Amino acid sequence: MGDLEQHEAFLRAIFDTPADDTARLVYADYLQENGQEKRAQLIRVQCELARLPPPDVPSGQPERRFALLTHQAMLLIAPPFAETDLDRGFSHPGRGVNLDGRELGDPLALRWKIVTECPHWFGATNLTVRSRPPLDGARVEALFAQPAFARVTALNLCGDEVAEEHEAGAITDGLLVVYQLHPTLAPSGLLALVSHKAMRRVTALDLTNNDLDNDAARALVRSPYLDNLKRLNLLAGNRFRGRVWQQVIARFGEDVVGGAEEGGDDIPF
Q: How far apart are CA 222 and CA 216, in angstroms?
């Protein structure tokens, strides 16, 4: 197992058992053995601080707490971990990850970026991707191949509706505002998405504003990997005609896809 895979294995173990310090401390040993002594010390110090009794308890060891806090303050000076909200050495996953889809063009570089700069992404369950150009099939495959995203259950791939100003011409004065869709997902990306078995774990999916057509809707309906969806935002900003929307409702249920006015506000990002 190479160095990158070692880091990823430790980070998976840490965020699979977030209440247990064991994996964090073993990872600290590995970091120290590989030249990242300050990073290792920070994890150990914050783990020890978390185990100390509260400062207002008589046995709260105020001298030890002060020494640890002083050491922690010195360690936090060095980036990229110069943060004050770390939990035993790691940022909290928070509401989720926002990813620029262009980074999927170099999956190896993205993996290294995550383990060195954003290790808390291994704990994220919500992932939002925006991409210019839209994600094709290869980049969707690269997305699912990222070890950091193995816990994601809410996936937001909605495009953007951007107001663009144009000259109104001789008939009217001023500017004409036109709303232009900038999709995140290309048709080949949609096909790769619905064909991937990793979609079995996804419970919330936003595909609005991607200019998808009836063929895309039928691909969603035929997918064997979308049975666990509890919310699918789809109608707004896509081009469904005829009876295809009724097929979508029949496949997923109206409580999942909503009605004709559904939008993208209900997915928990």
A: 10
CATH code assigned at 160: 3.80.10.10
Angle at 76 between CA 73 and CA 79, to 5 degrees: 160
Are residues 102 and 138 in contact, defined by beta-carbon separation less than 8 angstroms?
A: no
Q: Cis ω on the peptide bond leading into residue 133 (within 30° of 0)?
A: yes
104 pLDDT higher than 70: yes
Average predicted confidence (pLDDT) for the chain: 87
**Shared domain check, 132 and 225:** yes
* CA contacts within 13 A on the Cβ side of 57: 7
| Total number of domains constituting the chain | 2
Domain residue limits at 45: 3-75
Please tell me whether residue 155 adopts helix, strand or coil conformation.
Answer: strand
pLDDT, position 24: 96
pTM summary value:
0.84
